[in-house]
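Example record

The entry below shows one chain as it appears in the dataset: sequence first, then structure tokens.
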Amino acid sequence: MEKFEVHILGCGSAKPTLKHNPSCQVLNVHEQLFMIDCGEGSQLQFRRQRLSFSRLNHIFISHLHGDHCFGLPGLISTLSLLGRTAPLHVYGPQPLEAMLRPILNFHCAGGTFEVVIHEVESKSSQVVLDNKFLTVKTIPLDHRIPCCGWLFEEKAALPHIIREMTDFYGIPHYELSRIKEGADWVTADGDVIANSRLVRPAEPPRRYAYMSDTAYMPTNASLVSGVDLLYHETTFTADCESKAAQTRHSTTRQAAQFALKAGVGRLLIGHYSSSCEDEALMCRQCKEIFPETIHANEGMCVKVGT
């Protein structure tokens, strides 16, 4: 099965600590890398995890608070120093262009590649990327500034050839593509061999949802229903609901309740407040409601699906 996994480069919140880096993840889908948020130090974490800069072509920024985007100019500058020539696509809510373009013009003028900026809708879900193996959609979030999450959906693969059956019926190699696409096989004697006897179903497509800084939004459950893995911020412990509401963040209990309502496979938590010294407590609070909870930490790699 092709790779579909999440690398945690940073899972802290806005105030710097010695324990965590600011928000950043890298999603590996079929050996193509997709960065999600880019806090300070993200490119160093990228190197520590031995990820390949040449495989990174798309960066998704949830919103323009510094702990989610201050690492972006430095990363782009490094890519130019490495001699990159392929375009780099950066996605995020307005005013991404107004924020990023002057920095690039000042610090990265004469760079070796084009930075293509895509400003996306943050108030409704829309498709922002669609290629042969992946679709990416926005998830509207409720924060203090325009903010969106990201839904990564793997496209269904063609079924697998049952080699014993195709060899038995003497099906030539050049016909296998048609068989994969659903064609039956007709023997020289005119017998029709049903396609279902020649192939077995491919593994079900996998889905990952990233819900960055947001107040509790149960209405979003339908957008991410049944995803294999959900990342949901847990800035505060369960006893801090009033502070979460004031700052437009979520608590552990709210993230777990959301995961339960959405019927997701597993919940990944992060964006821990610098005031919280017991992250194990945050994980326990989530597990009381949603047992399949994972406590994010830098250096972790989490597989999406089975």
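Notes for this example: The first helix runs from residue 42 to 48. The longest strand covers residues 4-10.
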